[in-house]
Amino acid sequence: MLLAAGLGTRLRPLTDHTPKPLVPVGGVPILERIARRLVAAGADRLIVNTSHLGEQVQAYVREHDGFGAEYAFSPEPGGPLETGGGLLHAAALFRGDAPFLLHNADILTAIPLADLYAAHLSAAPLATVAVMERPTSRHLLFDDVGLLGRSDARTGLEIRVREPVGAVRKLAFAGVHVISPAIFGHITERGAFSILDPYLRLAGEGERILPFRADGHLWLDIGSHAQLAEGNRLAAAGALD
Questions:
Q1: How many other CB atoms sit within 10 Å of the CB of residue 217?
Q2: How far is Cα 150 from Cα 88, in angstroms, rounded to an integer?
Q3: DSSP-assigned letters across all residues of 114-174
Q4: Could you give the dihedral angle defined by the CA atoms of residues 138, 143, 149 and 154, in that order, rounded to the nearest 10 degrees?
Q5: To 10 degrees, what angle do helices 196-204 and 82-89 make?
Q6: Is the pLDDT of residue 33 over 90?
Q7: Which of 109, 108, 105, 17 is nearest to 55 (CA)?
Q8: How does pLDDT run across 141-150, given as a tens digit for each residue?
Q9: Which 3 state secondary structure label does DSSP give 112?
Q10: Eight-class DSSP state of 16
Q11: String of b and e for 7-28 (b: at least 16 CB within 10 Å)?
Q12: Which domains occur in the chain, in start order?
């Protein structure tokens, strides 16, 4: 599933008439770059949620025949439901027979998606999240068992949902996950909410949410004009090929 319903407010005025997933980086829309990486990693079906200027996103996917995969859309006409709400809203579109990749549609990365998926299959947790050491004000906390909590340097708040086992590591979330379809039977949250809310609640209830270390791989959040300029620079240098 590609999470493509964001408003892209920090990229205005570009996103006043162009949805953020279709903003080009090196002449290729972000959505296409990510979708083709997913298909190359083995995805044979894409679910794309849409909201702001969503008809443009749907038209682009149709024009490109799903980039070589089957495709379905999950419109959110009332406004973006965030990562967790968007996933839950699309539940009926999933086949439910295997774990699936969930990928933010504003993240350009060289994280090895096939390796991430294989790691999830090997350990069989409820979810496996790509994480790395990089500068950020918000971290996820992991110990020897898995997800433990989160911290926010801006507010000074740190949440731990259980007692730690072994060393605690602070890692930055990369916006890419592999999730077991069993997650849909565990989500009690409703409306617009972050997927991290049920992750943390379920980790406190004993479910395993495991990290996949993606240190050293290219990662860029195309969320601002400065980051978009960096993406264009990397594309010109061939770093996104």
A1: 13
A2: 22
A3: HHHHHHHHHH--SEEEEEE----SEEEEE-SSSEEEEEETTTTEEEESS---S--EEEEEE
A4: -30
A5: 90
A6: yes
A7: 17
A8: 999 999 999 9
A9: coil
A10: H
A11: ebebbeebbeebbbbbbbbbee
A12: 2-236 (3.90.550.10)
CB atoms within 10 A of CB 31: 24
- Please give the Cα distance from 117 to 79 (Å, whole number): 30
Quote the longest CA-to-CA distance of the chain.
Answer: 51
Find where tokens 């086992």 sit.
165
Which residue in 77, 10, 65 sits closest to 228, CA to CA? 10
- Name the token pair of 43: 């995805």
* pTM (global) more than 0.85: yes
How many angstroms separate the CA atoms of 65 and 103, rounded? 19
Instruction: Read off the tokens for 33.
Output: 């770059």
- Cis, bond preceding 19 (omega within 30 deg of 0): no
pLDDT for residue 14 is more than 80: no
Query: What letter would DSSP give residue 107?
Result: E
